[in-house]
Amino acid sequence: MGLARELLLWASRSDWLARQFQQRAFFRRASRRYLPGEDAAAALSTARELQDRGIVALVTLLGENITTAAAAEDVANQYTELLANIRDAGLDCQLSVKPTQLGMDLQDGVCLNQLRSLAAKEGQDLLWVDMESSEYVDRTLDLVETVHGEHGNMGVCVQAYLHRTGSDVERLVKRGIAVRLVKGAYKEPPSAAIQKKRHVDATYLNLSKYLLDAAASDGVSFSAFGTHDMSLIRSIQDYSAKKEVPANAYEFEMLYGIGRDSQSKLVSEGARVRVLVSYGASWFPWYMRRLAERPANVWFVAKSIVSN
Ligand code: FDA
Q1: Closest of 131, 133, 127, 132 to residue 114, by C-alpha
Q2: Of 220 and 102, the one with more pLDDT
């Protein structure tokens, strides 16, 4: 792992740095590349603009590792209000939530109850759950499985870089839970995760093929390929055409601010594309992970500071 990436991922875990930087005007301006605004209204107007370009949306409230049950409840309430606003605005827009923001670090049951209540909300389409660092994977999958058993509308993110993901994907497909496959954005030790990028890419493609095969044979599996890697996307499309996978069995997902031209190109070719739009005041750790994905971006941040 490059030194710059290591440093950025280390910074993403520092509360002290988050407190220093989240309030600074220049840093807030720089974060706007990936974050249209800090409030829900900005996220929804972006979802509307995307819909006008033929792209559907996924919205998430930033923040992680909350420390009280009241904070988890507050997050769930904000999502409930967001869902009502999505419905009123007639947007094709799903929610993606983080377990530690709904209380996974607190006593048993807090996160489960919040997830249950969100999954049961009127107008709730597929409810996506993000995947955080590897220590949370077992608990996240257990929660998703429980709530899916009750409401049948859950999807969960899995990370291709983790050694365990092949068997997790098998388990999820068997239970009819939608899978969002990503490469993985956290700092993980070699015991948990593949360290070489080209090996992660190869694993991503193998897992994609497994998911497409499942969709072709069972006719119900649904997958989201969360990546901006056009070479992988083209390989997935080729494989899907070869196996005659129904077009509604999968979609490509990207992050707001990354790969805008690729998104438009895919849509113009008839692919289904969903863009994840984030909002919220606690954006620092998430922004550091975005910079770590492409450390060259740090120079753009530095340039924008100097030119302001
Ligand atoms: P890769 O890093 O190889 O990038 C491919 C190309 O995309 C690059 O060459 C560059 O052009 C462009 N690119 C990628 N990242 C960029 C950036 N930050 N800035 C500018 N250009 C960039 N991770 C996780 O651990 N848990 C999760 O729950 C999620 N959820 C999630 C949802 C969705 C919808 C997406 C798209 C991604 C995630 N991720 C995630 C993040 C994921 O793990 C991964 O870190 C990023 O998607 C970057 O990896 P790529 O697959 O794009 O490939």
Answers
A1: 127
A2: 102
Residue 70 alpha carbon to ligand 1 centre in Å: 32
Residue where the block lists tokens 């090996």: 199
pLDDT in tens, 225-261: 999 999 999 999 999 999 999 999 999 999 999 999 9
Pocket test for ligand 1, best of 134, 156, 183 (most atoms within 8 A of CB): 183
What the block records as the tokens of 288 is 């550091």
CA of 40 to the centre of ligand 1 (A): 23
Tell me which residue has tokens 């923040």.
Answer: 63
Cα distance between residue 139 and residue 165, in whole Å? 14
Nearest CA to ligand 1 atom 7: 228
For residues 187-213, give the mean pLDDT.
Answer: 97
Q: Which residues are catalytic?
A: 130, 180
Phi, psi angles (nearest 5°) of residue 68: -135, 155
CA–centroid distance, 228 to ligand 1, in Å, is: 6
Tokens of 2: 């490059």
